[in-house]
Specification:
With 321 residues, this protein is an alpha/beta fold. 33% of the residues lie in helices and 19% in strands. The longest helix has 20 residues. It is globular.
């Protein structure tokens, strides 16, 4: 999802100046991320069909995620919840939390949403605006990235606890064709988890959210919510990306705020969290955003590998094995 908070999308550009960093990030040892494996996890999700609230596809996908994460993580917890959608209907959602080193006092949070949108309200064909979207890049890409990172990191655990959080009901906010709009109709799973985390008094050193991280033309900018709540982490991740040669993907540019799960993690849970989210210059996030064509063909395994490399280098430079 990731709807813009700003009334207009201006993509004001300015380069952030940071202190010199002499760390040789290219020399940081990180786990072996397999892009083909990540793609297989994405393909499995798409095969279930749209993961919309209460659907059989959503139930099968939740079970699949939990079963896979149980192979690599020490604990896997389902967090069912009820939420009111924009039209007043009550929907049942399930957040999933899988943890490496669950007893470690210092933790890092990695998150994505696993649901797909009920309405293709940005489809160029108006007759499809009430159809569900496949949710390949918008949903499955972030989930697949977390799954493959968990597999890789389990074989080479960092010196920190890691919680992989899969949020449900992120992408069911007010559709474009509705007669009203409310920000809080989005991100229901993260709103619930931030108020009632899977572990009482849970906290983490920092969090990183992944949304729409698999497109063929990746562009991730420093959006304002990330800069406001976690400026140090934002600057470090983009600095690591540049050091690894990915400065064209991680565009060192300040852009407008985005409404996404990280907003509630920051505001309610108080965990400094950034969003790595596709941010195309035309303000549509990516060409197939909230359309019926957001299918497996929209995904590029190399983009997933690039994001994973940058994030794992960030974590392992902070918390060596």
């Amino acid at each position: 999802m990731a709807s813009l908070l700003a009334a207009a999308c201006h993509h004001r550009g300015s380069t952030t100046t940071v202190a010199a960093d002499t760390t040789n990030y290219a020399a940081i040892a990180t786990p072996a991320f397999c892009p083909d494996s990540a793609m297989a996890f994405a393909e499995a999700q798409i095969a279930f069909g749209p993961r919309t609230p209460g659907s059989a596809a959503a139930n099968r996908c939740a079970n699949y995620i939990m079963a896979q994460m149980s192979r690599w993580c020490d604990t896997v917890v389902a967090q069912p919840f009820n939420a009111t959608l924009w039209d007043g209907r009550t929907a049942r959602g399930t957040n999933i939390v899988a943890s490496l080193k669950p007893s470690a006092p210092v933790r890092v949070l990695l998150a994505a949403h696993w649901d797909s949108r009920l309405w293709a309200d940005h489809d160029p064909d108006n007759s499809l605006h009430h159809q569900p979207v496949p949710g390949a890049n918008d949903g499955a890409s972030g989930t697949a990235l977390l799954m493959e990172m968990a597999r890789a990191m389990a074989a080479m655990p960092p010196a920190v606890g890691v919680d992989f959080v899969f949020f449900d009901l992120e992408d069911q906010g007010t559709p474009e064709w509705a007669d009203r709009y409310e920000d809080n109709t989005w991100c229901k799973g993260s709103q619930h988890w931030a108020q009632l985390p899977h572990t009482p008094f849970y906290t983490a050193r920092y969090g990183i959210l992944f949304d729409m991280v698999g497109t063929h033309q990746p562009r991730f900018t420093k959006e304002e919510v990330s800069r406001h709540y976690a400026p140090g982490l934002t600057n470090k991740v983009w600095r690591v990306a540049a050091a690894l040669g990915h400065q064209q993907v991680f565009d060192d540019r300040n852009t407008d705020p985005i409404l996404d799960d990280h907003l509630y993690i920051n505001q309610i849970a108080g965990i400094p969290t950034i969003d790595i989210v596709q941010n195309s210059p035309d303000c549509s996030f990516f060409a197939h955003w909230h359309t019926t064509t957001d299918d497996l063909a929209t995904l590029d395994p190399q983009t997933l590998a690039t994001v994973a490399q940058v994030v794992m280098t960030t974590i392992y430079s902070d918390f060596a094995q």
